[in-house]
Design a protein that fits this description.
There is one protein chain. By secondary structure, the protein is an all-alpha fold. The protein has one domain: Amino acid/polyamine transporter I (Up-down Bundle), CATH 1.20.1740.10. It is about 70% helix and about 0% strand. The protein has 18 helices and no strands. Helix 3 packs across helix 8, helix 5 packs across helix 14 and helix 6 crosses helix 7. It is globular. InterPro entries: AA/rel_permease1, AminoAcid_Transporter. It is found in: Membrane. This is Amino acid permease. It comes from Pseudogemmatithrix spongiicola.
Length: about 450
Amino acid sequence: MANSTAPQQTPSPTLARSIGLWSAMAVVIGSTIGSGIFRSPAGIADKLPGPLPMLMAWVAGGIFAICGALTIAELASAIPKTGGIYVFLKEGWSDRTAFTFGWSQFAMIRASSLGGISITCAEYFFRVMGWDLGDPMPVRYTAAGAILLTAFFNIRGAKIGAAFTNFTVLAKYGGLLFIVIVAFAWGVPNNGVAHYTPMLPPGSLSISAFGLALVSTLWAFDGWADVSNNAGEIRDPQKNLPKALIGGTLLVMAIYLAANLAYLSVLTIDEMRVSRLVAADVAQRVIGPAGVVFVSVTVMISTFGTLNAVLFTSPRIFFAMAADGLFFKPVAAVHPTWGTPWVAIAMTATLGAIFVLTRSFEQLADAFVTAFLPFYFLAVASIFRLRKRADYQPTFRVPLYPVVPLLFMAAVLYLLANALIAESSRWQTAGVLGVCLVGIPMYHLTVGRKR
């Protein structure tokens, strides 16, 4: 087990610290706001068909993300090294735990994330163009192309990747805010307030259904921790990382809650349950056909920006692993001209393109959320071990410690237990967790033998 949080070996001194506070906060928002807020509300309303239970699921997802962000902010301020959660697992637990996380990222998590996001981006590209395709393969080929294109942007330089993220964040947040404003402006005068009652219809809330709905909100909220992967490229990371993590997550939570309240001011809960793209249906009712086009363009920009943000952050995990000797050494290569981990980016993009050509959106999204939860749990739990070390010196400390990290950990255990108990998700959850656990023997058969 790693026995010091002091810098031992910087993964690569040639990764320039070129990312400022606002760009880092844009990465948090850009990594988080993707397809979830446009696709997930219908599924959540279907599982919890009452205004209060549905909004409770979104609030719970936001609290979950905030508790995680506060804890990761402390860890990142103490260990501002490239790799994020991988680094926290390595320092707080062991090389084996960090390797298992990296294995899961390689075998499932990251490619599933890229695949799910890019499919949604491609679907709305074809919708904007007015092409209705019966064959899903053109959508998948376009999705793979989008992954490779954003990989090129990020290989060309961290500043280019961050600048593109900044632009798409303004477009997606502004577009969503516009939808919220026009929905309230139309809904309130047209008695939309009546859609909030009854707040708790009979049979609209159960523990099992709430857990399954919460998984859907986590797909929408996920991404809040990704900026920690770029800690080695952020200027003054001890100060800027906590500010970016907390500020970005709060802004996402605010717009998500506003969006769901706005949707409900235009549509009833029963209408939301059957709306595959609730934002488009809201825009159709409020603005007409032009509103559907606007929403489609917003979703396309939103998902393409998230795709760029994911490829801006996640390859740093493989880069850090390779620099530590826990992955193939060439993956730690830095481009001599552009100063980016180009091999790690290219490898991540290639895996995402392969996954998107072979799996459906549902398979990709469910696998991603389930596989990431155990490592979120361990990363947050590492704070209890690291705080016992004399050389652990964070510049930011979690408020209400230990309640905040414990609340996050309890939520993860509840979600995993609920997914394993529920008949509809039991075997899929077990299969995903099984793939993650394969990382343990893989460690001992490969790099672990030398350690």
